[in-house]
Amino acid sequence: MSANFPPLARRLDGLQSSAIRDLLKLTSRADIISLAGGLPDAELMPRDRIAVAADAALSERSRLQYTESPGWGPLREVLAARESERLGRAVPVDEIFVTHGSQQALSLLAEVLLDPGALVICEDPAYVGALQVFRAAGARIEAVPLDAEGMRLDVLRERLAAGARPAVVHTVSNFHNPGGVTLSPERRRELANLAEQYGFWIIEDDPYGELWFDRPSPAPVATYSPNVIRLSSASKILAPTLRAGWMIAPAQVCRAVELLKQGADLCGSALTQQITADLLADTDWLATHVDSVRRVYGTRAKALVDAVRSRFGDRVTSTDAAGGMFVWVDFTDGTDTTALLPSALDTGVAYVPGNAFAVSTDYAHSMRLCFTTSDEAVLIEAVDRLAKAHAAVGQV
Amino acid sequence: MSANFPPLARRLDGLQSSAIRDLLKLTSRADIISLAGGLPDAELMPRDRIAVAADAALSERSRLQYTESPGWGPLREVLAARESERLGRAVPVDEIFVTHGSQQALSLLAEVLLDPGALVICEDPAYVGALQVFRAAGARIEAVPLDAEGMRLDVLRERLAAGARPAVVHTVSNFHNPGGVTLSPERRRELANLAEQYGFWIIEDDPYGELWFDRPSPAPVATYSPNVIRLSSASKILAPTLRAGWMIAPAQVCRAVELLKQGADLCGSALTQQITADLLADTDWLATHVDSVRRVYGTRAKALVDAVRSRFGDRVTSTDAAGGMFVWVDFTDGTDTTALLPSALDTGVAYVPGNAFAVSTDYAHSMRLCFTTSDEAVLIEAVDRLAKAHAAVGQV
User: Fold this and answer.
1) Which residues form the Aminotransferase class I/classII large domain (chains A, B) (predicted)?
2) What domain count does chain B have?
């Protein structure tokens, strides 16, 4: 049939599935401890509170109907109040747009903000879900490497001075996926200044900002400039099944996204949006709930990082895991993480090799470890297995 | 800010909101009986059954997690069984893809099947949500008029013979929105034959097929050719809040759509998809439920059509409303429905003028009436008001 339908055949050739998704399919074997995933822990999701909210939502028949494209009104109001507090200014409701997870915001924004051939600057290593939509929009992608304080603005500044004119700079500002690091307050301010100086949009992609372990995340990049479109989500603090992401952006950006959302899928679900509003508005309950998630993830993160450092010593450097879901580990002994993977799977542990997230830097000696879905003992066992695999490959 | 951001400014200039949506905003006044909407009746939606299913779904923590991009497995199995029965062949699960309403299927298919400049043939009058996505994909749109038996295949055949080479032909096969008519069995077979002869895809968009009043809808176009991509939805028989649409298509089309869905929004909601699966699998309950919706809508449709015919006599022709949600009325006395609208709103009734759905035919004398959300007495009152407005305009 393909011969008759050239666009379809070309799409199938041209589209690449996420390497991580494909890997995850291979690592669902019961005998493998997977540090390769990127999922929050379902055991920590507030099932009972969601059930109560679902019952309440269904008491109103209007929740069964189509809802407005920018999101169910009361959810947008709750989000406006929440973001007003976070951003330190009164955020009006028409600057709030509810999306089907943050991923939909990225996808619609790529259509709104990018012409084919436009330059998008991402971080290296990058969130691959963002790369995918920017590439699909026909953008040219350049990457700026991360260091311990997030995106290296010295490199960005050089590129801009040399004539680079990005339409969009994308940053995962807190507890980077996959890099684990957080953009420092000084760099946030400077990035915002550069956006105004050179006239580009910043997409501040922030699904993990609430998941800090020791101290709150810095003020959002969006506090420093109206050129920032800020994305967040209920997936990591409540539950992905709600498919509730949101965007805080100038009203005209929201308006353009609304017109595209009508074509993309008309509207979200008033049921899951009311559940989300209900839980986010229950601020005392929410504070206690998020605290407990922080505590559990923080303990797991520390166990994982401690185990990595004690087993591998100076053959690795690792991020501290101050929040979020991921640790980024660099081997300093020349270990190739793609070459190590089959041996690791043999010993019963999975991770994602660094090059799965690489844009233009070589991350052959790096890997991403996710600590959210295993308890401490299992994480320590996972690192033991990784050390065994590493030793085995070392002996070859 | 626009000056700095030319793509955004251009998008805002270029994108058009749905005329119907904008009109609906004006017609939500309490004193107006709106026949302009396109919503199913929330009073008929199975709220209690959905609440039971929601409780059951939430008993499993895994329903809180991300789910697979092509849809929650058990829902795809229920749909495969359902469509196997409808299509008279064993439909494998990899030919079933769950979307966020049918609209998302249209949007993703436009990306998969169309190159910029590709020809798409729609019906005239057309479903505007389809026009919007085909236009956004850069397609050229041509329209083939409807008659009482659906798309005029004599016109399509002439166009093909004259050299037209569509990539896609889009048809709302049952109880057309807005045209009210159903594609006849003979034309279904012929359309399928033309698709194979000329090598185009048919998108058979079928949200209303279950809502027949007197006798079941004809066998789907998809029973006649593998070139048909069939779309359906739970929105009109269960509830829009479930945001559950589905596509039955060759596995390679589903695969291409899957890769795009990962970028568009990762996945749907396992919660709403399990609720949908639960209700669709409960076949005895479902049959009773859908029967009751048919009965109510059928009674309303008949009341509306009878009132239109008795008030306007030979100054109008009207479809019979054998199913679905809409009646299409043509004035034979030269009444311009766009000119009539302000007067109609003054007397307290709203409808959508035919030209809101026009592609290349002039529907200045036509209008779409929706009968789903008012009872018989209200529908009769609405037509009385319409007759008053018509008389008032006639006197000017």
Assistant:
1) 32-386
2) 2
Parent domain of B211: 64-282
Query: Measured between alpha carbons, how far apart are the two ends of chain A, in Å?
Result: 48
- Domain limit, last residue, from A262, A282, A302: A282
ipTM: 0.93
| Tokens 């005029």 -> residue | B152
The pLDDT value given to residue A5: 72
Are B173 and B242 part of one and the same domain?
Answer: yes
Q: Check CB contact under 8 Å for B256 and A129.
A: no
Contacts of A18 in chain B (CB under 8 A): 262
- Identify whether B53 is part of a domain: no
* Residues shown for chain B: 396
Residues A225 and A299 in one domain: no
- Confidence (pLDDT) at B29: 78
The answer to whether the bond into B125 is cis (omega within 30° of 0) is yes
Q: Which of B233, B249, B282 is the last residue of a domain?
A: B282
What is the dihedral sign for C-alpha B208, B213, B216, B217? negative
CA A271 to chain centre: 24
Same domain as A336, residue A299 = yes
- What's chain B's Rg over C-alpha atoms? 21
Give the residue among B184, B120, B154, B126 at the shortest CA–CA distance from B328: B126
A353 part of a folded domain = yes
In a domain, B54, yes or no: no
pLDDT per residue as tens digits for the range A74-89: 999 999 999 999 999 9
Which among A18, A75, A266, A278 is the top mutation candidate for probing chain B, defined by the most B β-carbons within 10 Å of its own β-carbon? A266
- Cα dist from A56 to A15, A194, A280, B326, whole Å: 42, 46, 15, 33
Residues paired with residue B349 on neighbouring β-strands, in sequence order: B33
Q: Are B373 and B359 in contact (CB under 8 A)?
A: no
A134 with A122: CB under 8 angstroms? Answer: yes
Residue ranges of chain A whose pLDDT lies below 70:
1-4, 6, 11-28, 395-396
Does residue B16 sit at the A interface (CB-CB below 8 Å)?
Answer: yes
* Percent of the residues in chain A that have a pLDDT greater than 70, as a whole number: 93
What residues 60-89 of chain A have any CB closer than 8 A to a CB of chain B?
61-67
Q: Output the CA angle A76-A81-A86, nearest 5 degrees.
A: 120
| CATH number of the domain bearing residue A292 | 3.90.1150.10
Same structural domain, A17 and A127: no
Rounded to 5°, angle at Cα B275 from B274 and B280: 95
Confirm if B172 and B205 have CB atoms less than 8 A apart: yes
Residues B311 and B219 in one domain: no
The answer on A195 and A121 residing in a single domain is yes
Residues A201 and A73 in one domain: yes
Give yes or no: residues A297 and A270 share one domain: no
pLDDT digits (tens, 9 = 90+) for B259-286: 999 999 999 999 999 999 999 999 999 9
